């Protein structure tokens, strides 16, 4: 299936995706968690830029996840803390700072798992997302928390299971 969406960052450029089917699981919403302010679009943009700057100052790995919006059908790009998981594999955490709800980008992955790109450094690659579960998630979570302790606090703030997503370079890229 070929999906064409208009980029919300570059409104005049259509984006073509070669979409193949995959699946991503979304855990249930929690009943408690960090309360995030409801801010207008420009403020969200500033918040994301502040996150980017803070992450770069800490010299921690940062990547840009590009998905197709579950509701809008528009291309969406979000900066995320990324964890190396071997050649052509990365882990990202859908923590939303320990909020009771899952981040929008996780819903986008579930709606269009076959239309996902990751930019790490100057390289942009097509990736296949996979939500980890069971022992595999536990091992990955322990590694993530050892590398970035703030994620332990995020899990303590909420009663939902924070998803860990493995992004694997697509064989077509």
Kindly describe this structure:
This protein starts with a strand and ends with a strand. The strands form two sheets. Strands 4-3-7-8-9-6-5 form a seven-stranded antiparallel sheet. The protein is α+β, with helices and mostly antiparallel strands. The chain is globular. The N terminus is likely disordered. β7 and β8 form a beta hairpin. 27% of the residues lie in helices and 29% in strands. The protein contains four helices and nine strands; from the N terminus they run ββαββββαββααβ.
Report the count of strand segments.
9
Low-confidence segments, given as residue ranges, are 1-22
Taken in chain order, the helices and strands follow as EEHEEEEHEEHHE
Largest beta sheet, briefly? 7 strands, antiparallel
């Amino acid at each position: 299936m070929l999906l064409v969406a208009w980029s919300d960052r570059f409104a005049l450029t259509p984006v073509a995706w070669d979409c193949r089917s995959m699946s991503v699981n979304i855990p249930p919403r929690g009943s408690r968690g960090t309360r995030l302010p409801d801010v207008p679009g420009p403020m969200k943009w500033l918040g994301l830029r502040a996150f980017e700057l803070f992450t770069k100052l800490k010299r921690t790995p940062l990547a840009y996840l590009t998905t197709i919006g579950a509701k809008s059908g528009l291309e969406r790009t979000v900066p995320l803390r990324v964890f190396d998981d071997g050649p052509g594999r990365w882990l990202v955490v859908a923590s939303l700072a320990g909020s009771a709800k899952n981040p929008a980008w996780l819903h986008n992955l579930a709606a269009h798992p076959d239309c996902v790109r990751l930019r790490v450094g100057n390289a942009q690659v097509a990736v296949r997302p996979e939500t980890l579960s069971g022992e595999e998630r536990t091992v990955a979570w322990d590694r993530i928390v050892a590398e970035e302790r703030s994620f332990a606090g995020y899990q303590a703030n909420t009663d939902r299971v924070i998803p860990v997503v493995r992004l694997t370079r697509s064989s077509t890229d």
